[in-house]
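Human: Can I borrow your eye for a moment on a structure tokenisation matter? Separate attempts, laid side by side, tell us more than any discussion would. Could you pick a protein and write out its sequence and tokenised fold? No explanation is needed for now; the record alone will do.

Assistant:
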Amino acid sequence: MIRQLFQIQLTCLLMVVLSVTALAQNPLSKADLIKLSEGGMPPSIIIKQIQTYGIAFKADVDSLLELRKAKVPDEVIEVLIARQNQPTAPSAFLEVGRTLYNRGDYAGVVELAMQRIASDTTDSSARYLLAVASLRLQKRNVAETQLAALQQAQDTVSKTLSEKLEALLKRFDGLAKAKTSLETELRGYNSEAAFQVIDQMQLPDAQKDLLRVYLNAYRGRYELARHQLDKLHATQPDLEKDWVAIRTFIDQSAAEYQQSLARLSWLAQFTWSQSAWMTAEHPCYWIPEGLKNLRENLPEKEFTIGLFPDTAAYDNRVTSDAEALLRYTFESATRLVQVAPLSEAGLMWLFQVALMTRPYPIVEATGDRILAGQGKLIVQMSARDDSYYFVLDKKERRVRVIRAAPLTQWVKGATARRIEPGLLFEVGFDNIASISQPLNFFDSYPSTRLRTPQTSMLKIMPGNYAFTEFPLLPEFSHVYGEKAAREITHHFGEFVVHTIGQPKMVASLISLDVKAKGAWNLTSILLAGAAVANSAAGNAQQSAVLLDQLNQMDKQAQLTNMAQQQQSKAWERLAVDTSFDLPVKILFREFDTVLRELH
């Protein structure tokens, strides 16, 4: 803020001077007149500006009233009234129209041209200018109307302009169709088809090359995008300012892409139930920027394997830390998809976050869309010995598991007790006889509400091939409960079965039922029978002890049910709270910027 009165006055004076300078060689708009009046410019100077450069608006009753309310001097308004019934000379009109057009004020051109046509309906130049400006504003119907009027005229100028406008309309329609096709392929994640659309566009090579630069940036192919941009720069060095801006966009996108990947790699190898591997004594990974707070909040050394205290406070701590881990993951995945929506990594995390946060119909629609555009879907999986990718290849109709980045020895040891080893395999859709989900949940802590998945999310027979689990599935279970973890596991199996589409294949998916601990089972039935027997035998003290045990079990069951209901509601809120909007609304602003210039 400028605090001194002198500085304020000086700033106002500079604004007035700069306004007059900026208005030189440009017709004045209503905003220009108001700005000059508010700045204290004498009416005589404003009138001189009007007489020299003209006005860029129609001096009708509404405009005059607007200027009068804005306290524009009466002398200026009188000059505008005097000019109201004086048609602009053709040469002056074209000069003003050209100036407005070059300034990008297409609405001003439309207003000026309509004013000119109202005073002279035979002015073919005004009709042509109105049509061109209307196309810039995406108002094709106005341009078509002006074309019909030009075609009806008999003079040579109208005939020439009608031919030019007709060719321009055809080009406009062709580019509009190409733009629609390009957007369709981009939103369908089909990079290959998008390149084909660009190849077929009726554009100069430089514009097509620029579209390819942006497309490669969205694919995460930043080095290729830079190489293509360097070639453009070499052929058109006079546009260096534009090339620098695009290079900055590529470099910033690449930096955010690498940072998001580093964060997700670090987060995905976490194991909260065995979190000692991330303590100061066992540094496993460098910590990506933005995650230092998460690292500092890790449980202390005493919370290592076998030393979990049986306290609600520790359970809450584990849940809170797991929730932070998931939040960081969703934020990083969101940013990854925003900067590289067509990259393999972006689409992999797009599907995985959809699986964790959205109902099955959206999961299926998202997966089908990726498969249609890319031909394959990649899902990250965790295992005891390494990190793997599970690949559903619909084009080749095969399922395969391939090795991803290897884990360190300490991570392998930390995860060995809970996750099965991975197994590289490849099998055709038609050779799969059955799919099952032998995933069970066990008490990872002495508490009754923190349950961790164990064994595999997917078994494929014959061959006993296994998909072990998603990264962060245990943490998801800790935060949102066993029921939510069962549902996303079931959704994953359901989507795999849907994609394979093998009618003879037998599918045994995980049950969605969660039985509360302490519910009536064989143990409780035996306890009840013993209580009744003791009561009948007159052993009141023993009967009371057994009944008290049953009451404790019922109470625990009620508490567990309440916890499950709260977790279920939290999971429902997750779809609303996460900024990861699915299906992702990719705006492609850079493409729109280029395509706007095509008309």
